[in-house]
Amino acid sequence: MSILIDQNTKVIVQGITGRDGSFHAKQMLEYGTKVVGGVTPGKGGQNVETIPVFNSVKEAKEATGANAAVIYVPAKFAKDAILEDIASGINLIICITEGIPVIDMVEVKKALNASSCRLIGPNCPGLISPGKSKIGIMPGHIHKQGSIGVVSRSGTLTYEVVYNLSVNNMGQSTCVGLGGDPIIGTRFVDILQMFQEDPDTKGIVMVGEIGGGDEQLAADFIQRNVTKPVVSFIAGRTAPVGKRMGHAGAIISSGESTAEAKIQILRDAGVTVIDFPDEIPQALAKRL
Amino acid sequence: MKIHEYQARDLFAQFEIPVAQGGVAQTSGEALEIARKLGFPVVIKAQVLVGGRGKAGGVKVVSQEAELVSEFNRIKALTIKGYTVDLILVAKAIDIQKEYYVAVTIDNIKGDVVIIISAEGGVEIEETAKTNPEKILKFYLQGEKTLDERRWALVAAQIFPDTRLQKSATSIIAKLVKLFFEKDCSLAEINPFAINGEGNLIAADAKVIIDDNALYRQEKVSQLRDLKYDDADELEAKDKGLSFVKLEGNVGCIVNGAGLAMGTMDAVNLLGGTPANFLDVGGSSNPEKVLNALKIILRNPDIKVILINIFGGITRCDDIATGILKALNQIKMPVPLVIRLTGTNEAIAKEMLAKAGLTTYSSMRQAVTEAVKLTK
Prior knowledge:
Shape of chain A: globular
Oligomer: heterodimer
CATH architecture of the largest domain in chain B: 3-Layer(aba) Sandwich
CATH architecture of the largest domain in chain A: 3-Layer(aba) Sandwich
Helix content of chain B: 25-40%
Number of domains of chain A: 2
Distance between the termini of chain A: 18 Å
Strand order of the largest sheet of chain A: 3-4-2-1-5-6-7
């Protein structure tokens, strides 16, 4: 098993005719993901590879029975793209787009709260259940099917972690990239709970970074609810205070958001926190 | 993006939030002219985008002309947290009877806009937050873009002593909320939110931070940026789609993704080196970005080695390789390059670089170890 997506997940790609959208639609298709359609307003009726393009999410959903959508549209249009998915009842929305104004995300969050849809991202790499389905931009070939759940706020740092797991023969049940923005649809706690409940996930890797208070909430949740071993890496120990490191989320504004503070809180909650991403497989092996 | 107090006051005035009359001066002559119009006493305040200016002596109430000139010149000569003072705000002094605190900001975890308010404002608000958190109230807008005055009334009643002040505060805060949304703020703060000698509420300071992601649709506000506060290289990097922060070390880093870029800096440090910078080439990178990144990094005379650490996802390794080869054609590389490429189109990229005689690594630890070794 896996969480959130599997071989039966049917995906539509919003922004499929753009450079990133078309490239990654092909990559997903090659990986084996059921990419059933694409959406670009005004370009309905065309095809990208074998994938039919529709003018709206509603049309695409009716024609294909899609239950997930992935968004590659520019930041200016991303809010409307997400709202269109929510209005069309797409259960799982993955937003890759970065640079969305935070006020737009407040509006999205309100619509999400009033619906049963789940959003992953924005500004995220997406998610993958190896061997079954990948929705996003991660390179498929570094993953391996198995029983480690990976959840991360970062993109490329997650690949680094996954790569180290796979070369050490530790496959993954599902890997989820939550995204680096201040407001995101799904947070550590949501995914930790799913991994805890997933019978095929035996161990969990959590990749955090400086800024915000999510790792602290995760530590509290782990202490109370997670019985599976958790290994963590926190990026940003060398980041200077008060400087924005690319992610809007990755900024240290107060003492509690530093890497050192987060590492301590996680250790106190029974999490094994390592210093270098390639130390994760060994640390996990010890606890499995 | 932070803006100066005098600029934030202008925004307040546009939204009819009461502020003390005043103007901004570059010279003591200009300051005098403003003060004569206002009438003494006036307060003069250094315009810097860093906190703690009051404690640094950058704020002073003056009651006559000679004092104004001498204090103006004293403040003008200050360096506050490394920044010189270019402009000084001259405003009518407020006879503050009581200080409140109010701010509109985002609660990331709730994904909602929140009003933070306290009857104990002033410079000690952060101290209050630590020692008496119960004295700070939070009011969530619950996804709305305006202040729900009926729901808010309960909060106002807890903070303000009488209905006149409650009403007045509600009206001002509703305007602050309007400003917050219309100008795409991430923070709009009044501290102190003061009661003046006439018993009326007034913004005795103004702090506004604009969401960088929204600057594309805030043309007017974008022009308020004070370029002095951005490192020239950092600004140029931003202009070229790179995210760059200069640090003190000697290992130049070019990485894709903020998380991996931070992770790479940490790794350099852990393995005995010192990172010279944070540089994220971003996703979907075109070859030009690598060329620009190398140019910016090489301006730093401390650099002893450049470490390129790419884990391809939306970034394709072959795009990075094309950029590296292009750069080598255009720039004479004064320091060694250590290249690590893994992920999307890795094989093509490695073949391209191998043909040009460049060694690449697949393991981050190996590459970082090699880079640190080359600095010794």
